[in-house]
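In practice, a research group might receive sequence data for several interacting partners and want a quick structural hypothesis before committing to experiments. The following worked case mirrors that situation: the sequences arrive first, and a predicted assembly follows.
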Amino acid sequence: MEAGVESRDRIACELVAESLRAGHDVQVRVAGSSMVPALWPGDALIVRAVSPVELSRGDLLLFARDGKLCTHRLIAELDDSGARRLITRGDTALKCDPPMSSDQILGSVVSVSRDGHEVPVLSSRRAKMLSFGIRHSAFLRRVILKVHALRRHSELLG
Amino acid sequence: MNSFADSDSHLAEAGAYSTSVVIGGLPIGIQSSNRGFIAMLENRYAGFLDEPVAGGILLDVEVVASVSDSDGAEEDIQVRYADGRWHINRGDFRAQWDPASRRGFVRQAAYPYAIDTVMRIVHSLVLAERGGFLVHSASVVRNGRAFLFSGISGAGKTTISRLAPADATLLTDEISYVRRAGDIYEACGTPFAGDLGKPGENIAAPLAAFYLLVQGPHNHVASIAPAQAARRLLRNILFFADDAGLVEQMFRTACEFVSRVPVFELTFRPDTEVWNLIA
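A structural hypothesis for the assembly, expressed as tokens:
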């Protein structure tokens, strides 16, 4: 990666964190596929700062990792010698993220927009099955992302 | 408001007189049936004129007595994208620009401020797509390197320009043109003058530093953390479009810019000594 690009991402992370701490909602754009089918590349997320006591399993949380913004699902909470640790994971990821303290969480996703329309965050059994399939098949991931990209392209062309 | 179908009917007569204004290497052709209007533009943008370029951006200007009851220049400008083109409206003009065909239409009275604004907006839209921007700042070239001095009205853009040494070249004392050139940024001269009342030189130079101006009792330069620099830069960028995609692009551009160009806060008092801190 270019040094400037890495630095640019870190600066963006700082600005987003600063805005959320100041009480502003922030819109971020999904770039990866780790949360398919709940979130697709190109989706716009509205993120809001959240109090640690409000967090609950299943929430989509925004945090910074290696200088980049990341949105994954909260799947568990641990008590580490009295310290609360949060466990997050991408729906299609094989491994959980390293445990985090609640002050590392920048905010929680409050709405998702796809192609200009607000959509519900999928957490149905069917969505979970699809995530499971993608998690264990790189081929299925490629096919689904390709189909999604083609569908979006045809919708944009009307 | 004129539709593009309407504007097409004006082309034959609108093409009677034309000129081409080149800023930042981007020519914008302007044509009108009003000879005096074109002559006025050629006088205003002298030093930034060139022959019209085939296939380049072209604005057809219909000069009318007035667009609305008020002169409207103080009204907020509206810039939105709909039906494949940008709609740029203010009380004193109505304009549309189609980025695909690169053609546009402006209806305005016979003074330069409206077309001046339309050109700034078209440039800001084109620059945004290319990772550049227009910013409220003075810019000066010295020893082959460009320095930008940014701030709101009254921050000292014209003052710092006036204090520049004799071997410095003014690019603008009001609106700076910043374009991406590979891994670097360049500042280009613009004809957009502030209180100095003098257009800049039509040249470009690699950008060496970006200064945020603060007037104070002593001359002092301080580094600024990149995130703070990006936030303050964003406040001063000229950006009018009500378009989420371009807002995201501008956010990325500001972060990228401050990761590549040194940004400082320059506290200064109005004397020439301040230039010893700059270059």
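Before designing any experiment, note the following. Chain B is about 25% helix and 35% strand. The helical segments of chain B are 4-14, 35-44, 112-129, 157-162, 226-236, 244-260.
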